[in-house]
Amino acid sequence: MARQINVALIGNPNTGKTSVFNRLTGLNQKVGNYPGITVEKKQGVCKLDRGLKAHIIDLPGTYSLNASSVDENVVIELLLNKNDKDYPDVAVVVADVENLKRNLLLFTQIKDLGIPTVLAINMADRMKRKAISLDIEALEKQLETKIALVSSRKNEGFGYLKELITDYNLLSTKPCLNASSIAPEYFDRLRTAFPKQDLYKLWLVITQDVNFGKLDRNELKGVASFQTESESNLKRLQQKETIARYQFINNILKETLTIDTANAKDFQSRLDRILMHKVWGYVIFFGILLLIFQAIFDWSSYPMDFIDSTFASLSEWTKNVMPPGDFTNLIAEGIIPGLGGIVIFIPQIAFLFLFISILEESGYMSRVVFLMDRVMRRFGLSGKSVVPLVSGTACAIPAIMATRNIESWKERLITILVTPFTTCSARLPVYLIIIALVIPEQEILGIFSLQGLTLMFMYMLGFAAAIGSAWLLDKYMKIRSKTFFVIEMPHYKVPLFKNVLITVVEKTKSFVVGAGKIILAISIILWVLASYGPGDFNNAEEIVRTETAGETLTEAEFENKVASFKLENSYIGYMGKAIEPAVRPLGYDWKIGIAIVSSFAAREVFVGTLATIYSVGSEEEETIKNRMAAETNPVLGTPLFNFASGVSLLLFYAFAMQCMSTLAIVKKETNSWKWPMWQLFVMSGIAYIVALAAYQFLK
Question: Do residues 400 and 668 touch, judged by C-beta distance below 8 A?
């Protein structure tokens, strides 16, 4: 077996660390969470020379080991715990050639932990354009390390970087800074009290407790009782350490780094003046959003039509090829339509992730964060809240995890509570099918699709609900909290196709696999409940024949009446009738009621549920959309899905908390059931009232 080493990939945000990770691992990576917390854990495998394998861990971005957020603390926890199975044999610190001074602060801290450390200077392809020259040999000598100049864009320097990782045991572990020089007397006392401990690691354990208070952690024995310095003095010593490190870095860069600003071709500042303009910045941002939602509807229609017809044909083919019976019906009428109800929406979901990935990769998303901070402040949020809110358009779960970068607890809690209002990709299937049913296919001004504009309105409505809720929470939540806003503007760059592709594939696969498991299970349960029933269900043909005596019916019409009678008298029919009085004022029938209840498992289950319910007993090659369009109101005889009921359903899903997984994440992030339960009841109440008002007003 090949020997495996652990490699920690560490760096400041926006240094291209993820691009380096993707170059080293390709698609051979997986995403999970760190044990006990919801910070994303990215891992991958890279084959090296001499039969060696590197298990690469892409750690969250951090500016230094003086962490200012719980997200950054993950890095420190790993680097201080030698017993952790992921503890690195070698650390690769990724630096941006244009921000080398700031990036080297983190490098010197990690090297001082005694971990073999390689410096990977990324974006080397920019050096000529920015008129930057770097004496690598002198820099290696001063830092006593090995340096790899790499370019993720051009895939250069990675062969040498792999060589350095392979030969990690040859790297010097001599510290860059003598920690005891910060405060000799204090460190002498520390050395006396803990003679067997590494002083710098011990110093980090003590100072991180200053930052994180009661946070659970694996402390070194005796540290808690070593309180000879006040919190303010420890912070002062932290500042003194940072100043000493920057003095060390400045002296080195004076000799090794040259930047000829006169010959640099700076396009970024000119572009920022347009994209971050106090008026045009917002116009451009909303224009980009409009383009995204138009593309989701228009570009994805071709693959959707193909998937739609393929699943309908597959269901019919299954019935014709397999022997008649319950097992065949389960596959043809339960599993295939249920899965088809999700697979059909892969194109839209993939397009959504595609655009979000491009905005992040290009560097534009950070400009949006800065731009929106002016607006967000008025509602009790910070500009950093935009990232979770925009990420929430993909899925609320990772979006809520992303709030760990918000330093203020009050702003973070408010962001967690309002993020589920933003329209996630799980709502997208519901919106798309209802909009297609009740909104006409017509163009406005010969350019914009009315259906696309409606979809954008639903997204804007969700965002407005989140902002409005945040404003109310900010007014009424009595939580004292310091707040500050710092963000770095990454350089504009053309998104790397490989990075975008990996993001789209991984995120879409995660969505489909996660939803598919739930839908498959629920589809089977629903099919059983809809295919069996008590009493009259078993005598359906005789009862229908008696009721239609004297009528002239074709065989197909008779079969449809039998199927309808069975569905209404099945177990699921009785369940639907029981909740129908509650949903009837909203314009729904018992079938929609069943779909709403089942979609509490996950919103996307709504369409799969309807696909399963409406396909029971049907031998026609019809799509779910056509079956829904054919449904009639039993009292009025008019189409069940008219404009009023369609708008009511859209509004219900715009506001309702229809996701158990999100509730679980909120509980984990807030460490209390109080907040997720509050979300569930308040959001569901708002959804019911708004949907009721809309239907009663429009009908």
Answer: no
Higher pLDDT, residue 589 or 249: 249
Q: Measured between alpha carbons, how far is 127 from 160 in angstroms, rounded to an integer? A: 19
HEC profile for 35-75?
Answer: CCCCCEEEEEEEECCCCEEEEEEECCCCCCCCCCCHHHHHH
Compare 351 and 141 and report the one with higher pLDDT: 141
The tokens of 598 are what? Answer: 């089942």
C-alpha–C-alpha distance, residues 504 and 438, integer Å: 30
Cα 544 to Cα 403: distance, rounded to the nearest angstrom = 58
Helix H or strand E segment including 284: helix 280-298
Q: Residues 6 or more apart from 412 whose CB is under 8 A from it? A: 403, 404, 406
- On the 0-12 / 13-18 / 19+ scale of CB atoms within 10 A, 420 is buried
SS3 per-residue string spanning 75-129? HHHHHHCCCCCCCCCEEEEEEEHHHHHHHHHHHHHHHCCCCCEEEEEECHHHCCC
Q: Which residue has the tokens 């000598």?
A: 141
E strand segments, 152-277: 257-259
Quick one: average pLDDT of 65-87?
80
Interior angle at CA 511, CA 507 and CA 513, nearest 5: 115
Classify strands 132-134 and 146-149 as parallel, antiparallel or unpaired: unpaired
| Strand-pair category, 146-149 with 117-122 | parallel
Q: What are the backbone angles phi and psi of residue 47, rounded to the nearest 5°?
A: -80, 130
Q: What share of the chain is helix, strand, coil (3-state, %, to 5)?
A: 60, 10, 30
The DSSP call for residue 673 is S
Q: C-alpha angle with apex 630: 302 to 609, nearest 5 degrees?
A: 70
Phi, psi of 223 (to 5 degrees): -65, -40
DSSP 476-515: H-------------PPP-PPPHHHHHHHHHHHHHHHHHHH
Residue of 38, 7, 11, 4 whose CA lies nearest to 24: 7
Classify 257 as helix, strand or coil.
strand
Cβ-Cβ contacts under 8 Å for 555 (sequence gap 6 or more) = none
- What is the per-residue pLDDT for 110? 92
Burial 426-452 (b: 16+ CB within 10 A, else e): bbbbbbbbbbbbbbeeeeeeeeebebb
pLDDT tens-digit profile of 494-515? Answer: 787 877 888 788 777 766 776 5
Q: What CA–CA distance (Å, rounded) separates 324 from 19?
A: 53
Helix (H, G, I), strand (E, B) or coil at 554: coil
* pLDDT above 80 for 561: no
Question: Under 8 Å CB-to-CB from 655, ≥6 apart: which residues?
Answer: 421, 465, 683, 686, 687, 690
Query: What is the CB neighbour count within 10 angstroms for residue 84?
Result: 14
SS3 615: helix
User: Cβ–Cβ contacts within 10 Å for residue 374, how many?
Assistant: 12
CB 24 within 8 A of CB 44: yes
For the segment 573-602, what is each residue's pLDDT rounded down to a tens digit?
Answer: 788 888 888 888 998 888 788 778 777 766
Pair of tokens at residue 444:
């406005």
**Gyration radius of the chain over CA positions:** 30
DSSP string, 518-535: HHHHHHHHHHHHHH--SG
Compute the distance between CA of residue 293 and CA of residue 463 in angstroms, rounded to an integer: 14
Amino acid at 595: A
Tokens 């009085």 sit on residue: 581
Of the candidates 606, 608, 580, the one whose C-alpha atom is nearest the C-alpha of residue 593 is: 580
Domain borders along the chain are 3-170, 181-243, 521-698
Q: Which CATH class is domain 3-170?
A: alpha beta
Instruction: Report the distance separating Cα 153 and Cα 160, nearest Å.
Output: 16
